[in-house]
Each structure stands twice: as C-alpha cells, then as structure tokens.
Amino acid sequence: RVRSLEVDNKGIDLLLANIARLRCSNPILPKLQALKWRGKANGFSGAVIFMHDGIKKCSFLDECNQEQSRFFHLCTMISDHTPFITTLNLQWCYPHPELAKHLPDLLNCLPTLQTILIPAFNDKTGILLISRRLPVLKVLSFRTIMVIRGERIGINCIGPTMNDSDGICFPGLEELHLHIVNYSSISDFFWRSYTQLHTLRVWSSFIEKPSSTRDFFTKISSTCPNLCEFRTSFKASDLRPGRFAPMAEDVICLQ
C-alpha cells in the first residue's frame, strides 16, 4: 500500500544490506511510486532494494559530496531499475563538472521524463543536447548557484547545441528555472521561440548592466510569446526608471 517513501540514510546500511541478502527478487514495496533518498557517507546503494519499474518519481539528495564513481553508480541504478520515471530530482552539495558527464547517458535512457531538476552545472552542453529531444518534457530546472573560493558555480555555458537546425528543441517545455552566472551566458538558449513556455525563473549572480538586462528582457519578450510568469533576480548597477525593457503585454506575473 505504500506509495511514497522518504529515507534519511543514517546508520541503516547494515539493515539494508541484510534485507537485500534475504529478500526475494520481487519488489519490497510493489506499489511504490515516489522515492526520496538522502545520501550520506555510504552513498545511495541501499536504495536499490526499493527501486522498480513502477516508480514514477525519484529524488536523490547528496549531503556529503559523493565521489564521482558513486554518482555514476547511482545513474546506472536509475536507468536499470526505474526506466519509466516521469520526475528526476538530483541535488548535489557541490555540482562538480565531472558529474555532469554522466547525465546525458542517463537522460537518454528515460524517455518518459516530464520533470528534470538537477544542479546548475557550469557547462550544460551535453545535458541540453539530450534533454531538448525528450518528447514529453514539461519542466526543466537547473538549480542552486554558489560561490566557492571566489568562483561562481552556475550555468556559464550552454554550448552550440541550441543552435542546431533540426527542429527538435523542447517541443513541450512549459516551465524553465535557471541559476546562471550572468544573462549573457544563456542568451543563445533563446535564439528560437518557445510557444509552450508559460513560466520562466532566472537567477543571476552577476552585477548586470542596464544594457545587458535590456537585451535579455527584449529577447525573452520576442521568443516566449505565451509567457505568463517571469521571475528574475540579479544585482543591478543602475535602477533608474526607463533603463530596463518592458516585457510582453500578456505577462501576468512579473517579479
């Protein structure tokens, strides 16, 4: 009867190992649809005993800066045991660039994804190349920007993948969240129209000049004709009236 399970993995690894050793091949919780797992020092391996192809939502939260090998193992677990999930939520305490290399292969194995929530890796090239082709993707979120030893960790490159002319580019995307280094780092994302997009949230860690803000707002107005909600946060160098471009007239919520 259990439909949703949330586990904070504190000192239960031995128990999970014993269950895995004694259990039969059938799922322990066959009706489970949502799994949320907080990974500690021993990673996420214990979660596998609850994973099966009936699960629709997977959330894995790292709290100990897991090693790259453990992240790769997690990606393999997800693709092998939960191939039909509609929501994937992966949050890492430090979005190391090496971790992003494993995500394109994982996303390519999950054709039913409707919602993707992943860290704001600096370079999104490979991830966007795959996610833009997912047929039923509706929500895409690159979250959490941080400053470590003076380095801004957030999207600063989307690569050339958004300029392909094959016509497949987020056909059903309705909601987009972006934590970025600055507006210019994602300007190429909006080179084409997103007619289904109704919610856009952008957080910039940069001191944006009026000219860059105006250019970005103008591009949003022209490429997102059905936008209903636009939220943005940035550091402004000049907030005098008339310095920023107006949004499309049909935007219902602007923050």
3D architecture notes:
By secondary structure, the protein is an alpha/beta fold. It is built from six helices and twelve strands. The strands form two sheets. Strands 1-2-3-4-5-6-9-10-11-12 form a ten-stranded parallel sheet, covered by helices on one side. The chain has a two-stranded antiparallel ribbon with strand order 7-8. α2 (68-81) links the parallel β3 (57-62) and β4 (87-91). It is elongated, with a radius of gyration of 20 Å. The protein starts with a strand and ends with a strand.
Biggest sheet character = 10 strands, parallel
Work out the strand percent: 25-35%
Shape: elongated
Listing every helix as H and every strand as E from the N terminus to the C terminus, the arrangement reads EHEEHEHHEHEEEEEHEE
Spans of at least 5 consecutive residues whose pLDDT stays below 50 are none
User: What is the rounded Rg?
Assistant: 20 Å
Strand order of the largest sheet: 1-2-3-4-5-6-9-10-11-12
Number of strands: 12
Question: What's the overall average pLDDT, rounded?
Answer: 80
The span between the termini is 42 Å
Residues in helix, % = 10-25%
Please state the structural category.
Answer: alpha/beta
What's the total helix number? 6
